[in-house]
Design brief:
Elements lengths: L2 E6 L4 H12 L6 E7 L4 E7 L2 H10 L6 E7 L14 E2 L5 E6 L5 H10 L10 H10 L5 H9 L6 E7 L6 E6 L4 E4 L4 E4 L11 E4 L5 E5 L2 E5 L5 E2 L4 E2 L15 H7 L1 H9 L3 E2 L4 E2 L8 H6 L2 E6 L1 H18 L3 E5 H4 L10 E7 L5 H12 L3 E6 L5 H5 L2 E4 L12 H20 L4 H22 L2 H11 L4 E6 L4 H15 L2 E6 L16 E6 L5 H13 L3 E7 L11 E5 L8 H18 L18
Parallel strand pairs: 18-19, 18-20, 20-21, 21-22, 23-24, 23-25, 25-26, 26-27
Antiparallel strand pairs: 1-4, 1-10, 2-3, 2-4, 5-6, 6-7, 7-8, 8-12, 9-10, 9-11, 11-15, 12-13, 13-14, 16-17
Bound molecules: 2-deoxy-2-amino glucitol-6-phosphate (AGP).
Length: 608
């Protein structure tokens, strides 16, 4: 999705902006641009394509200035071309802005502004805001920005500069994140902490509705009525190393291979061996509140939704609470039922997914207590939830989520264990699970040793045009996740299905060209899954089976068997998903796909 960066201070802003934009590349984008103030007015350079292209353009046609804004665009309104790239200027060319989000009433505003004589240079919704500010009254830029935003419906993170007030950036947010980077005599603005980390670890996360004014002398945060607000300065927990490839060919591979450590990090300090439970201080739930929970609703999208489906099994099993797992984008537009005793859990790696955030707000408005299972510290979902569990998986750069998924599963098991122990799960069972959780990082490390075998398999299947992923019980969501990983980065069509559902339709697709990936670890449905394999075999399908140690040799039945270490059945998704992540990765690499920047996708989906 779009990214924003801005700089004001003693240095030339352009290298700072380019560096910040490069850090935002992982979010997915199709064009890039910068604008600076240099005493001769606003100078902008922008183009469709990569930040490297912008760097080259600035090499040929340089601009300098100590105050500037930059943007990576992910097209919504108007094609991804040079013209539609941000920054956008007003009619006078003295004001420039960059914008993340969507101005929903852009058509109405554009028609009105055009009638008043404004000339539009682009097809974007964003440009309307530049003209609105141009028209707005106010003694200062911030007053004009506040007045203009009063006409806007939709979402925005916005950064504005104007020739009339050199050395000032005005930013505002509603539904799209913006933070301030607080340096020594210099200040940055950005949509994502990674864009400021090379310059400062101190950040101020803005709240929805905030407007901030940033100059070399400092910053002020205002509300919609221009009243000054206090906002805490936070520290970014991780460092630049976490944003580097560290010798790996791709961030996705690095993040897959990190999972033993990231799982350990999610568990750190949270296992109580004697009590047989989890320490989750951030939940902010009293024992009485835990006892009153009658149902849990999980809200999430994509991979996080798959984690939620695993979480349903885990929580129902350990805590005996009924769980429903909702697509956040669907839930938010349904009638909100006020069911007493509902606990809502929003799961999101980024903590900024627009659908999940709005669904969380809808659940809150309907009276539910809301928890967030979030990776990005300080993100909007983390701040708007009543409590929650941070994943502590470190920054996930690869667009295809991998380490966040396994950390989400760990956090859900911890939550299930905690709720279970609050609601009568015997201490012995709790202790047993705690022991098994403590052993998980080593099992993950052993599972990662399958990489070479999986890479060889990828060679055989790289030309596939379709693939089916089948699993049952707690491993059905892993089938969905394996299929999602493959289609996201290799563009091979793939479907995940409950293995037993295959005979109700997808079985028609089975032939010698259809790879079928089975999840078959040792659990109570193992023999059923083997029967499903027989059905595929009988129709000539090619089978890859992910089994676990102790399942025996299936090679008489399947084409390839990948064996993960044995584990408690509830924990098996944490291991079975790893060969599927590796398979998707190696197939995509073999097909020459841009693994970390898959087409059309964005890391954090901040539009509806
Ligand atoms: C995962 O590989 C995806 N890129 C995507 O489905 C993602 O999980 C989804 O957009 C939700 O993101 P979130 O966890 O940041 O809310």
């Amino acid at each position: 999705m779009c990214g924003i960066v801005g700089y004001v201070g003693p240095k030339n802003a352009v290298p700072v902006l380019l560096e910040g934009l490069a850090r935002l590349e992982y979010r997915g984008y199709d064009s890039a641009g910068v604008a600076v103030l240099n005493g001769r007015g606003v100078e902008a350079r922008k183009l469709a394509g990569r930040v490297q292209g912008l760097r080259e353009l600035l090499g040929r046609s340089p601009v300098h200035g100590r105050c500037g804004i930059g943007h990576t665009r992910w097209a919504t309104h108007g094609a991804p071309n040079d013209r539609n790239a941000h920054p956008h200027l007003d009619c006078t060319g003295t004001l420039a802005l960059v914008h993340n989000g969507i101005i929903e009433n852009a058509d109405v505003l554009r028609a009105r502004l055009a009638q008043q004589g404004h000339r539009f240079a682009t097809e974007t919704d964003t440009e309307t805001l530049a003209h609105l500010i141009e028209d707005s009254a106010g003694a200062t830029l911030e007053e004009r920005v506040i007045a203009a935003l009063g006409h806007v419906e939709g979402t925005y993170g916005v950064a504005v500069i104007a020739e009339t007030e050199p050395g000032k950036i005005v930013v505002a947010r509603r539904g799209s994140p913006v933070l301030l980077g607080v340096g020594d005599g210099e200040y940055l603005v950005a949509s994502d902490a990674s864009a400021v980390l090379a310059h400062t670890r101190s950040v101020v996360y803005l709240n929805d509705g905030d407007v901030a004014v940033v100059t070399p002398a400092g910053y002020r945060v205002l509300d919609r009525d221009a009243h000054e607000q206090d906002r805490a300065v936070d520290d970014i927990e991780w460092d630049l190393e976490a944003l580097a490839l560290g010798g790996y060919a791709h961030f996705m591979l690095k993040e897959i291979c990190e999972q033993s450590e990231t799982v350990r990090s999610t568990l750190r300090g949270r296992l109580l061996f004697t009590e047989g439970t989890a320490r989750l201080n951030g939940l902010n739930l009293t024992s009485a509140q835990c006892a009153r929970i009658r149902r849990i609703v999980v809200l999430a999208c994509g991979t996080s939704w798959h984690a939620g489906l695993v979480g349903r099994h885990v929580i129902e099993e350990l805590a005996g609470i009924p769980v429903s797992v909702e697509y956040a984008s669907e839930f938010r537009y349904r009638r909100q039922l006020r069911v007493p005793g509902t606990l809502t859990i929003a799961i999101s790696q980024s903590g900024e997914t627009a659908d999940t955030l709005e669904a969380l707000r809808a659940a809150k408005a309907a009276g539910s207590t809301v928890l967030g299972l979030v990776n990005v510290v300080g993100s909007t979902i983390a701040r708007e939830a009543d409590g929650g569990v941070y994943l502590h998986a470190g920054p996930e750069i690869g667009v295809a989520s991998t380490k966040a998924f396994t950390s989400q599963l760990v956090a859900l098991v911890l939550l299930g264990l905690y709720l279970g122990r609050q609601r009568g799960l015997p201490v012995e069972q709790g202790r047993h699970l705690v022991e098994q959780l403590a052993g998980l990082p080593d099992l993950v490390a052993r599972t990662l040793e399958l990489e070479r075998e999986v890479a060889q398999l990828a060679e055989r299947y790289a030309d596939a045009t379709n693939a089916l992923y089948l699993g049952r019980g707690v491993n059905f969501p892993v089938a969905l996740e394996g299929a999602l990983k493959l289609k996201e980065i290799s563009y091979i069509h793939a479907e995940g299905y409950p293995a037993a559902e295959m005979k109700h339709g997808p079985i028609a697709l089975i032939d010698a060209n259809m790879p079928v990936v089975f999840l078959a670890p040792k659990d109570e449905v193992y023999t059923k899954v083997v029967s499903n394999m027989q059905e595929v075999r009988a129709r000539g399908g090619r089978i890859i089976a992910v089994t676990s140690e102790g399942n025996g040799d299936l090679r008489h039945l399947v084409d390839h068997q990948l064996c993960v270490p044995a584990s408690a059945p509830l924990l098996s998704p944490l291991l079975t998903v790893i060969p599927l992540q590796l398979l998707a990765y190696h197939i995509a690499v073999r097909r020459g796909c841009d693994v970390d920047r898959p087409r059309n996708l964005a890391k954090s989906v901040t539009v509806e």
